[in-house]
Amino acid sequence: MRPITLLPTRALSTLGAHAAVIIPARMASKRFPGKPLALIGGKPLVQRTLERVKRARHVDEVFVATDDQRIANLIEGIGAKCIMTSHECESGTERVREASQQLSAEFDIIVNVQGDEPLIDPAHVDKLITHMKKNQADLVSTLACPIRSMKDFKSPNVVKVVFGLQNQALYFSRSPIPYLPSDFKGPDEEKSQENASDQHRPFKHLGIYAFRRNFLEL
């Protein structure tokens, strides 16, 4: 698991920073209307995501941001914190931005975890927060991990990322990028490609972002 940045960085420390996770959730998904309240193992999807995020050790507060009272009722009913946002938000990031404006000034790291991530690894959240605390000049960071199967490499459902020597993201694509390494091969497409070095291995993007709050609010 590797943190990558979306802007050039320099190494500074903000170990005392406070981090809040905001989970954007809306009912009006075109592909899956009502998705946040869809039951997964007897619990709503957004609740599953919330419970996983709360396991992260370096998160100070977790909020769900929504424009729907049904979601708000659920979140408040289980004793969690909800922030109401407008119906005008066109993306999850925009909803997170609006919600962050309602937080107290102590939160200077804002992590965006999508509401449909019931299996998110809490360690991923911690890794991203730790990276942001150690690198004050990183305004936006995300995560990437090696692609270990040809199926994932070719799949348009897996977002790939190319990054530079300083781990700064260069570009993202659903197409196979940057190329097919000579040591990334095998007759079994599902087989883990353990022989490929990270330097030449394709990486996939994990859809979790950490923002410096003052940058998010620009």
Automatic annotation (TrEMBL):
Please identify the protein, giving its name as recorded. Answer: 3-deoxy-manno-octulosonate cytidylyltransferase
CDD domains, per database record: CMP-KDO-Synthetase (cd02517)
Recite the UniProt keywords alphabetically: Nucleotidyltransferase, Transferase
The molecular function terms in GO held by this entry are: 3-deoxy-manno-octulosonate cytidylyltransferase activity
Q: Does the keyword Transferase apply?
A: yes
The organism is Guillardia theta (strain CCMP2712)
Pfam families from the UniProt entry: CTP_transf_3
InterPro entries of this UniProt entry?
Cytidylyl_trans, KdsB, Nucleotide-diphossugar_trans
Q: Which GO terms describe its cellular component?
A: cytosol
